[in-house]
Structures are given as structure tokens and as C-alpha cells.
Amino acid sequence: MKNQAIELADLYAFKLGCLWRALKAEHLSLWMLCIYFFLEYVRPQDLYPVLDILPWTQVFLIATIVTAFFDHSVRWVSNAENKLLILFLIIATLSGIFAFMPGRSLKYWDVLGGWAIAYFLVINIVNTEKRLILFLLAYSLFNFNMAQHGSLTWIMRGFSFADFGLLGSPGYFRNSGEYAVQMLIFGSLAISIVVSLKGYWGQYKKWFFYLCAATGYMAVMGASSRGSQIGLAVISVWFLLKQEGGFKGLFVLLVAVAFLYYLLPDKQLLRFQEIGEDENSLQRLTYYIHGINEVIPKHPILGVGYQNWLPYLNFTVPEGMGPMQKNQDPHNIYIQAAAELGLFGFLVFILLIVFAFKNNAQTRLLAKKIDNNFYFNLSYGLDAGLIGYLIAGSFVTILYYPFFWVQISMIVMLNNVMKRVYISNDSTMYKKRLETGVKRNF
Predict the structure, then answer these.
(1) pTM, whole model, 2 decimals?
(2) Torsion sign across C-alpha atoms 56, 61, 67, 72
């Protein structure tokens, strides 16, 4: 009953007391889901070894599954992404069975399988407007923990260049390249939230959250990852094309770009000038060419096997390749998908991307009909994060990392909640649907 007394406007205003009362009133399944993401994105069990006495992420993933069964509000969410994800898992399983080294595929199965489970938990548990706000806020706080640390580190070293870039939380985000990708995703989401809800905040709170959102993109600049910085440039142009500010928006963008360009160290600018000529670029280009000309044509159906690129390369090219004469992961999500999962896996991956954008387009269409700017802007923020991932993913090996799978889960989650909000705001059509039994096509 307490949850019903809490107005959405109070949650939009980020009133701590209301947020806490809303969270206390929610089912245990939402708590377990948020704790699971906290353990994956903050990793206190790795930061403080004294806590590392249990496999905490697995424990709370199982706890989320169990509590979801007792959550009577949970209903199966139907979406084309679900079928594509299941098909992707089937292909990955088959590629693992017939892999070059099946044992390696089995060893890493919990990585892809775990994020697939997390996907279904997110879209089915986060099924109301209040749960959506609480989950997005929790997710943003976990990411802000990394963003503020990275941006402050960059500021304290005088915006200087460092070969190691910036480091995120232990686990999936410890490497500078992977950390920068996550900051692209977080920065885009945070900005869309701030733009949507700033009208509910006072002046000081508004500028505080603007600063919080900016730390994501600042961390990208300090991480020294060229792929993510290119992704940020594309996102900036994309946001410009989507906004309605005209010359005002163009002016703001130009000022922001000029400011960030000014902050970039000379060594980082030199790295951009050397793209295609430096040793790292040539090494990665070697992997791309080898994957397209050798690996994929020889294993077009199911690839060399899930997580089998490196052992296959070590066996077929033991002397190494490229200017560094060594074997590494392909550093490209598209080459990784086609080489390890075959052309079938690659096709399903592309379809997952297409339908993610389609889901966001549907969300915007419904949001526009009922004049809901919050969902409208959130869908653009999720689009921007996905664009950043797809561009930065051309330079790092992150296909099975959480970036893509969590992003599409939030896209489907937003789409599902938007449909519910649309129905509740369209009672006449809803009653007609009940009377005629006609299924609404969104």
C-alpha cells in the first residue's frame, strides 16, 4: 500500500525518502536483481578479498531466479529479441559441441549463459514504471561509481596521456578499452535521464546531475581508447541530428567538441594521426584479414567454436602473425561472431541489433502518442549507447561481455513498460481490445 501512495513525480524528483519507501515496498525479486548488478558492476568481493568467500554473483543470480517465481507481478514478456537470443544461444551451444576445442567452450559457457539469464530476468522483473525508475537509478549509480573515479583520475593527472588509460571495476571493466565502452553506454543513458527529468529538480540538483552525467564521457576521453573516442564522436553527431535545437544545438556541440579536443593530450592526438600505420593498428588489421580470408571461409557454418578463436589460431599459426608476431583475440565483435559462431551466428547477432533499434523506434512511437518525453528520450539514450558499443566493438573483443546483452535487455524492458503505460493511458482502446479479443500490434 505504501508503494501506491508514492507518486511518480516524487521518484522523478529523486527524493531520497520516496525512493527508499518505494524500494522497500517492492518485491524481493527486484532487490535481488539490483544486488546482482551491484556485484557485477562494482565487484566489492574483488576489491575487498575478505568478502570473497562465496561466488556471490552466481548466488544472487540464482536468488533472483528463485524470488522471481514468487513474484506474482512477473509475466512472460513476449518480444522478437527473446526468440533471437534463444536462437543465438542454440547456435553458440552447437558451435561449442563441434568446436576446435569443445572443452574451452564448456569452460566459458557460464559467461554467455549468465548474461542471457540476466537478460530474461531484467525484462520480466522490471515491469512497472516505478520498478523501471528504481532499476535505472541503481544501474546508473553502479556505473557512476566507475565514471567519477575515472574522470577524477584523469583530472588529477592533469588530463595527461597514459598507456594504460583508465581502469574500471575488477572483472569485465578492468581493461581500459572495455571500461571506455561501458562509459559510452552509461554517459548516453545518464544524459537522456537528466534531459528528461531536469524539470523536476531545483537548480543545484540539476547541475549536480548534469555533472554526474558528464563524468561518463569524460572517462571515455581519459581512457585513451581510440575506438571508444571515435564512438563518442559519432554519438555526438547522432545526438545533434536528433535534437530540435537547431543552431543552438550545433553551437553547444561545437563548444563541447572544441573543449574535449583541447583537453586531449598531444600523445593521444598523435595516436589518431597514426591510425592504420602504427604497430597496434597493423596487428589488428592482420587479425581482421586472417579472419575474413582464412578462418570464416573454412568454417562458415558454426565457426571454429564458441571462445575458440585463440586456441585455433595458436594451432594453425603457431609462429604468430602480424608485426608483433603473436596471436591475440580478433579485436572485433563482427569478426569474432562470424569466426567463432559461423555465418548463422553472425546473422542472428545482426538481427538482434536490428530488432533492438526497432524496439526503441516502437517505444518512441508510443511515447509520442501519449506525449511521454521520459520514455521518448530514454529510447534515444539507449540507441546512442548501442551505437557507441557497435563502433567501439570494431576494435575490441567484447561480444560475450555484458555490454550488448544488458543493453538489449534494457531496450526490451523499456519497450514493455511503455506498452503498459500506453494501454493504461488509452482505456477506450483497451476496453475494446478486451471486448473483441483482438491482439494489439505494437
Answers:
(1) 0.89
(2) positive
